[in-house]
Amino acid sequence: MESVTSAYAGKVVLVTGAAGAIGSNLCRRLAQEGAHVLALDDLSTSKRWNVPNLTNVLFLEGDILDETQLNQVFLERPEIVFHLAGFFANQNSIEHPEKDLMVNGMGTLRVLILCERFGVERLVYPSSSAAYNGNLLLPYREQDGPIALTSPYQITKILGEQYCNFFASYHGLKVVKARIFNSYGPGEIPGKYRNVISNFIFLALKGAPLPITGTGDETRDFTYVLDIVQGLLAMGILEPLVGLSVNLGSGRETAIRALAEIINVEIGNKAGVCYVPRRRWDSQLRRQASTTRAEELIPSMPRTLLQDGLAETIGWFREHWDQIQADASF
Length: 330
Ligand SMILES: NC(=O)c1ccc[n+]([C@@H]2O[C@H](COP(=O)([O-])OP(=O)(O)OC[C@H]3O[C@@H](n4cnc5c(N)ncnc54)[C@H](O)[C@@H]3O)[C@@H](O)[C@H]2O)c1
Known about the structure:
This protein has 330 residues and is α/β, with parallel strands linked by helices. Helix content is 41%, strand content 16%.
């Protein structure tokens, strides 16, 4: 991986969504590799303190939907763009479908237009495991298609992928699409719309029961954020990845009940779990990434064990507990 990461030295790299859970970690790694990082975020759902305070990370507070602001950012001539700004996630999009379409749909389109106009070398787009909601068995039967998307967020993440495909095929833009499976790790501030691990750790540290939506047998592929960052770094540089979608997942399934138990034991939370009804859009009972393509194409692609990633995440929570308590939005 050394040759990949050293390729960033001296490069001007734009990260949209830089204050977010994944973007903040990506900015830190890029800066460590010697990139000049343009860190753009409107702070609509994140906090300034989450952006690494490093000399080669230039924080720019701005909205990707504001054409003047976005144009100014591109005048800084980014060579590589990681477009991580997004309206997150399913439940939020159910409650705010128009905002979801604007940020994930129009926002992505505007970023793509400027990437093409300014001759950006590479765009990395974070798609979602929702891309696999369809039945992929052959032969295709009418009742199996089209892909069964169950929330506006899933629709707009796949819309973004389709716009990326169009800009690649029609304009020749070099695009790589990361299909990210349930990210977790340091940098994710808990909240009503955030991922289950961040919220479980927060509640466990407060001594509250962990709410399981459904039976607890549902599985997800939880992927440590620094593994995702390593995959994204490769996507920004490696030539064989251009034009591809690549899963960034651990390749392991974990049931939600098992996850809750691990977190309660690690933290010493005696309040256990409680059960609440499954959310109506949440129809996927199991998720697991194939890691074959990532392992073939990305040298030394890490696959951090859940226990190890959770320990790091809990450590981050303890270190930033006062700020997290102040900023957790439920
Ligand atoms: N976290 C996951 O499990 C996961 C899985 C699949 C895909 N993704 C995608 O990866 C990307 C990053 O995910 P994340 O977990 O870091 O999300 P996040 O919500 O933590 O970060 C997104 C950031 O975008 C910013 N933002 C929102 N609207 C903006 C706008 N109009 N202009 C500028 N900034 C804006 C927010 O303030 C936030 O800091 C998102 O696009 C998300 O859809 C994430």
